[in-house]
C-alpha cells in the first residue's frame, strides 16, 4: 500500500491510497458489507453504479458463516463476491464483544459464543489475522480490547495495556507471515482506544503509533457519548498520529459527523447509517433528511433531491418511493440504499475537491447553510 498526501486545507486532508486492487481517493466513506454484501445491493451496484473503491466486510461474521476456510477455497473475498476493488475487514472484536451472550476478554484474547448457534470460540491476535489472510482483504484491522462505557479508569487502563500488547503481537506475527509469503499484499491497521479520556487516548495513540503499522484507526467512539465529546476526542487523538499514514475513524456516522471529522484531519470512515436509514425510510439530501413514508410525498413528483444525480433521483419520484415503501416492495430497499450511499460517496468527492482547491472552510460553511435553509 502507498499513501500520498496531496493537499491540506486547514486540518482537512486530501490523499490517495493505492492497494493491490484499487486507487482510493480520500476523504473516503466505506460502505459496510458485513457478510460480504452491502444490504440490498450487488457488487455491480457498488463498483459500477456507485463507484465505490473500497467496502468493509467483517471478520467475525465471515468466520462464522460461511467460514474463512470456505472463502479461501473460493478464491478469497474478491473472487467470492466478484467485487474488483478493495476490501477492509474489521477484526471482529467488537462483534464478539457485543453480539455474544457470553464474551470475556483475558490477557490472550476474547472468548465468545456464536450468535448463530451458541458454539464457543476464542479470538487471539494471531487467529484474527489468520482469518483475514484467508479472506484476502486489502486492509486488516487487528484485535483490540473493547470496554463497555462507562467504565472505571482501572478497566480502561487495562484495555489500553492489552490493546498495545496485542498490537505488538499482531505486527510481529504479520511481518513473519509476510516473510513466509503470506499476506504480502495485505496491509494492517492498529486501533487506538481510551474512551473520551484525553490522557488515555494520548497513551494509546503514542504506544501504537510507535509500531510499524500501515495505518491507524480511532475506535471506541460514536457509542453514546455527545457529539462534542467525540469531536474533542478525535481532535486530541489526531495530534499523536502520523501525518504520512491513513487516519481512520471507525463507525462514524452522520453527514455532519463526517464533515466535522474531516475538518479535524480524518481520512477514512465507515458506518451502517446510510443503508440502515434507507431501509427505515430516512433519506439523506443536500438540505437534510426526509422521511419518505410521510403522507406529504404521496403525490410528490420531484426526485428525492433536485441536487442529486444518482440512479434513483434520475429515474424515480418521491411519490414512487413513498408507494414502494408503503407497499413493502423489495425494490424500495435497493433504490433507497443507492440514493443514500451515492449521497455519502458524493459528499466525500465534493469534500476532496474543496480541499484540493483550498476552499474547505467555504465548503463546510455552505454544507451547513443548505441545511439551515
From TrEMBL:
EC number: 2.4.2.29
Catalytic activity: 7-aminomethyl-7-carbaguanine + guanosine(34) in tRNA = 7-aminomethyl-7-carbaguanosine(34) in tRNA + guanine
EC top class named in words: transferase
Keyword tRNA processing included in the entry's annotation: yes
Note on cofactor: Binds 1 zinc ion per subunit.
Pathway recorded for this protein: tRNA modification; tRNA-queuosine biosynthesis
InterPro entries for the chain: TGT, TGT-like_sf, tRNA_ribo_trans-like
Binding site for Zn(2+): 308, 310, 313, 339
Residue runs in coiled coils: none
Binding site for substrate: 90-94, 144, 193, 220
Region (RNA binding) location: 251-257, 275-279
Name assigned to this protein: Queuine tRNA-ribosyltransferase
Species the sequence originates in: Sulfurimonas diazotrophicus
Gene assigned in the entry: tgt
Amino acid at each position: 500500500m502507498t499513501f500520498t498526501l496531496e493537499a491540506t486545507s486547514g486540518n482537512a486532508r486530501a490523499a490517495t491510497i493505492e492497494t493491490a486492487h484499487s486507487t482510493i481517493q480520500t476523504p473516503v466513506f466505506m460502505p459496510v458489507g458485513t457478510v460480504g454484501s452491502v444490504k440490498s445491493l450487488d457488487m455491480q451496484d457498488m463498483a459500477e453504479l456507485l463507484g465505490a473503491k473500497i467496502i468493509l466486510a467483517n471478520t467475525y461474521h465471515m468466520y462464522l458463516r460461511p467460514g474463512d476456510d470456505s472463502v479461501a477455497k473460493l478464491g478469497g473475498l474478491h473472487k467470492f463476491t466478484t467485487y474488483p476493488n478493495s476490501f477492509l475487514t474489521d477484526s471482529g472484536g467488537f462483534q464478539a464483544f457485543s453480539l455474544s451472550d457470553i464474551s470475556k476478554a483475558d490477557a490472550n484474547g476474547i472468548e465468545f459464543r456464536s450468535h448463530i448457534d451458541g458454539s464457543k470460540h476464542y479470538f487471539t491476535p494471531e487467529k484474527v489475522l489468520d482469518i483475514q489472510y484467508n479472506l484476502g482483504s486489502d486492509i486488516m484491522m487487528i484485535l483490540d480490547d473493547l470496554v463497555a462505557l462507562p467504565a472505571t479508569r482501572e478497566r480502561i487502563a487495562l484495555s489500553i495495556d492489552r490493546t498495545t500488547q496485542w498490537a505488538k503481537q499482531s505486527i510481529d506475527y504479520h511481518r513473519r507471515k509476510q516473510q513466509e509469503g503470506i499476506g504480502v499484499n495485505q496491509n494492517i491497521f492498529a486501533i487506538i482506544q481510551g474512551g473520551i479520556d484525553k490522557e488515555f487516548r494520548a497513551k494509546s495513540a503514542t504506544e501504537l503509533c510507535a509500531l510499524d503499522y500501515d495505518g491507524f484507526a480511532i475506535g471506541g467512539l460514536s457509542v453514546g457519548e455527545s457529539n462534542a465529546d467525540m469531536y474533542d476526542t478525535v481532535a486530541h487523538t489526531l495530534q499523536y498520529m502520523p501525518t504520512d499514514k491513513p487516519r481512520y475513524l471507525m463507525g462514524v456516522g452522520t453527514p455532519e459527523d463526517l464533515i466535522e471529522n474531516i475538518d479535524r484531519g480524518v481520512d477514512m470512515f465507515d458506518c451502517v447509517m446510510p443503508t440502515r436509514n434507507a431501509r427505515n425510510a430516512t433519506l439523506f439530501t443536500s438540505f437534510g433528511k426526509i422521511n419518505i413514508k410521510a403522507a406529504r410525498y404521496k403525490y410528490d413528483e420531484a426526485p428525492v433531491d433536485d441536487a442529486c444525480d444518482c440512479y434513483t433521483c434520475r429515474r424515480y419520484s418521491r411519490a414512487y418511493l413513498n408507494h414502494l415503501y408503503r407497499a413493502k416492495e423489495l425494490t424500495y430497499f435497493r433504490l433507497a440504499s443507492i440514493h443514500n450511499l451515492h449521497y455519502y460517496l458524493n459528499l466525500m468527492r465534493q469534500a476532496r475537491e474543496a480541499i484540493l482547491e483550498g476552499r474547505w472552510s467555504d465548503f463546510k460553511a455552505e454544507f451547513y447553510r443548505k441545511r439551515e435553509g
